[in-house]
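Lab manual, section 2.4: Encoding a predicted structure.

Procedure: take the sequence of the chain (1127 residues), apply the prediction step described in section 2.3, and record the output as structure tokens. A sample record is shown.
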Amino acid sequence: MTSQRLLSGQPSGQLPRVVLAPLRSGPAPAPALDAGQRRVVEHSGSPMLVLAGPGTGKTTTIVEAVVRRLAVDLLPPDQVAVLTFSRGAAAELRARILSRMPAAGQAPLVATFHSFAWQLLRAHAPERAPRSILSEPEHLAFVRDVALAPGSALRRLWPADRRKALDSPGIIDELVSVMAAARAQGWQPQDLVRHGAAGGPPEWIAVGEFFAEYLDVLDLAEGSDYRIDYAELVYRATVLAGEVDELAGRFRAVYIDEYQDTDPSQVALLRAITTPSTTVVAVGDPDQAIYRFRGADVRGILEFPDQFRDANGRAAPVVVLNRTRRFGTQIRAVADRWIEPVGLGALPREARESHRKPQCDGPAGKVEALTFRTAAAQAAGVADALRRAHLDAAAPVPWSDMAVIVRSGADIPRLRLALLQAGVPVEVPAADEPLAADPALAPLLTGLRLASLSPETVQEHPGPSGSQPDMPAFEELESFLCSRLVGFTPLTLTRMMRKLRAAEKVLAAAGEHGEDGESRRGRPARPSAELLVDLLRPGATVPAGLDDATGRLLDSLQDTLAVMRAPAASVADSLWALWEHEPEGAPPSPPTSRRGGGQGDLPVEGGRWARELYADALAGGRRGFTADATLDSVSQLFRAAERTPAGVRAGAFVDDLARQRVPAAPPASGAAFNRDCVRLLTAHRAKGLQWPLVVLVGLQQGSWPDARERVGMLASQQIGPDGLQPPLSRQAALADERRLAFVAATRAERRLVLTAIASEAEDQCPSDLFVEAAALDQVDAEEVVRGTGRSLTPAALAADLRRRLQDRQADRGLRIAAAARLAHLSQHLPGGPLCSAADPDRWWGLNAPTVSESPLVAADSQVPLSASAIEVLGKCSLRWMLSRKAEAKAGRSVALGYGSLVHAVAAAVIEGHVEPTAAAMSEALATAFGELRFGAEWEAEHAWSRAQADLGRLATWFEVQPCLPLAAEVEFSTPAGADSLLRGSIDAVLSTGAGYRVVDFKTGRSPISKEAALTDVQLAVYQFAVGSGGLELADPGPPDGATLVYLGKSATGRGAVGPDLRHQPALDDDSWLIEKVDTAAAIVRGEDIVATANDSCARCDVRALCPLQSQIDWTSPEDGPRGDDGQ
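Recorded output:
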């Protein structure tokens, strides 16, 4: 198994400890039952609906009822069935029933609906029973193969005007959803065709014919190849039950747990195997009906009394279990407020009222509602609350007694990382976390995508209409190459990209032909991502001029990708090749147990990254927690890869992960947790579980509740029991979200914490759910502005002790005690340091300043400076050092990319290539706009709409100019001050008759003040360059002022048109500028690099590396410096 290959968990020479459980001497004692439970246990001979809210003892009730049927009514075990919705729940029910039986014997049938359907087919129609059931990845692969086969019905009959939809990466998911919904409602393939032709989605005609084709392919399989999917399994069992008369009433007692989760096909199967005199007891809670996205229909439980009547035609009675033992009145008050607006259909009024007002036997409990300014503050606040609960001297809460619940699995990776970094151990259910969203797995997933982008793979596995796989964005490739797996650094990658772009320019200038056979002369430069992908394809030429270390790194990566692209390589094989990647020239690491065999070998298989992760895990502490979590995620990824059928390419596997169709672990793994950790999971995953302390994170407007319209491409939600049904209304979607919040809140036993972000700056506000709860008298509401005191982490403790130690006004005994505790914390244990922050060798500021062997600027050279560098050096020299010299700044954002495109369009107008009209400029922008990588389609649409407004203002500005600017993108290099060389590029230069006015275009929407423009360094540097003759102009002249043109904001004031402008008069006195230039040059020359807090810290792109970061208040971000060089 993969997990065994990744880590050999048992150390050499040690045997596992085995503990034998004592033999059971008799049945477990009968539990005490309340009146409602006794009524259910004693009921027999007719249907009954049991409404059981959270903590009301429904499982106990089912167990005792089954025991009574077997031990008192003496029903044979094979005539009693218990149906539930997961293997784990079935196993628990079976064990509890057997523990209550007086002697060992045959157990009743306890199974999931799907297992029950399979057993019916095998027992009564073995020739129609499948040999196995298609798992979800197998089902997706099977549907994909049939749908994309040459001449398939889907290809032949798909509407011609919508053929592009076949290129959608989610088309296979949509096909599966439509077929499952059709079978759940009892539809035949021809029903889809008929409704598609009679006003339904026209695609249904092709889908219906494909559905028939798919079923034919299923039925043609023989022997072990005869497999069907879950929806088809239940449908065929229902058909069988209708054909075999003896199956009706075959079971004299049937108990169904979680009945609110049934879909129409399961209800139909249940009706087919029961009669009015069958003891049919459906136990569930309509307030916990949260699986509509899986096909569950809450109408099943709400309409049960009418659908299941007794022998006299009377509706089934409704019994309510209305004593909850899980929580008290405080938590119930929040749950009541959230679920109150949700109706309970036609259930009897008395039952509705009793169900919504249960008696709470638990302690009152506590509920808190906390708001934070930012997402980071929210994560820190959650971590602090968990640590304080765990370290509470009066009543410490074990980590495993706490849970953090989120609305979406996409929120888990970021929150897990934040908790781990705060020292909170976290465990995520394997089947809950979306692997594709885990940042730790990004290098592996990107590598798999790159392996699928070889020309051979693209030709063999086109998309549904012949499309090629999506090319990774440059940011994704940058993160991949600079990951610990591959080994590049941002600096080596930047240098390599310069070589690639230089080579591309040479080819274009020489008129070389590309792969398409066309000359590259005059064609726009290819995107950086395309250049990198070409470099990583088979046979690619390594650019000349690379240093040896970079060349070896690139060669070793190309070798690994070649192994992954082998024709016979499965997804798991490709993943193993990548996991075992050894960056050439990397420092030596301890050998693995497979290769070394020595006693000191690390028990891990893989390459350098694997060994580093395992070493971090052994060291413990924050890095150990993070490494543990990463290794867990890698193991889950391998399990998912190994479950992927043969023939599926790696790119399709990654696509399935991205749509969260491939779970991290199979459903059989259940919800088991095995470590003393805080549980981090989604609200859907939390159902059926409970903890003393629960935190609900992210009750944001637009996120929770998330009532967005969910209309699939093929509209599977419109398939109804009697034909077409309208899409889900917003009211129904909000009801689903309230049910989900109700489920999440009722997981708490003693304490419930609700969190949200309230920030006008980040356009975030708490949702209605949060506001409703915070308004209750039972809830303590608080706005957390600066945290809740000192963070209870080892690093914070060390910092507090250091303050005590360095406080010369403090008592000497207190300082000695602080020193002793720091010494204790700094000791090194076998697994690593107890607290690395307590080690004086790691204290910033104590060591002597680092002196470079080679100066930043040669002694005989001038100090090169740009306008933005002068501004940055004037505020924080460390930011300049990290972002400019070390090139450690964050990747290029979409906003910067957009700004570059607009600047290029403006330059094209000035150079005469594009007409100065909004329409012409928009057309020019459209050719390159698609290269921008937006997170969602609406973001791209919003950006395009904004671009039209920006270009409209630019066209107006051009229109009011007496003539077009003389030049665009004018570069300059001119000496300044005592020891500097000013460099940069000016967007536009205008001739005014009295001299030259310089212009800088801005796409931002926050202009500086008019007063600030008078001493703006960037404009002053440009004017200085004009006055010093640093520009190559045909007729040099003096500067005549400078202008900032804000294309993102319209001018204000009476009669104002076009963009907002900021002016700087002619630079008559440049002494203030020279003073700033000399100061900046002195800092660079003296290499006086110091972190300095300033008003730009909130926008600093290297703040994660700043030693002052934790001492800076981020609550009032302000604009940082603007750059003439894009920084």
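Check your result against the sample. The chain has six domains: 37-130+230-321, 135-228, 366-434+664-783, 439-514+523-658, 794-842, 894-976+986-1070.
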